[in-house]
Specification:
Elements: H1 3-32, E1 36-37, H2 39-43, E2 53-59, E3 65-66, E4 72-78, E5 82-89, E6 101-108, E7 114-121, H3 130-142, E8 147-148
Parallel strand pairs: 1-2, 5-7, 5-8
Antiparallel strand pairs: 2-4, 2-6, 3-4, 4-5, 6-7
Length: 149
Amino acid sequence: MKPRHARLALIALALAALAGATALVLNAFQSNLVFFFSPSDVHQGKAPVDRVFRIGGLVQEGSVKREPDGLTTRFVVTDTARVIPAVYSGILPDLFAEGKGVVADGKIGSDGLFRANRVLAKHDENYMPPEAAHALEQANKAGKTLKPY
């Protein structure tokens, strides 16, 4: 093989390896990507059906119900326009409370119940995730009333 052909083969092999590595990185990034949706977005069908996503808003007043097992909690997430019932099995953050901001990772079932894998609560009186704050602001601007999912 001529040196010129060997060099071209080496360049082609390096480009193929680079393309393969790029494909693997993009695939890993895509599978770990989690999108945020408000209860109104979920109601409009914008949330994925078979993938994990984040839902955020406020924990509706009077909606927190603890199961007898001590770990399972049922609650409702609202953006003041729509509500999504949720269930979480595990230890909730200390700041989790009715009327406070919440973001939860999980999937929504065919029954409309959001099954959370992880629940995050705001860390002080002034903080709310930007996505949740935007969703609440949009719902308040629209002047919508609460409607069940």
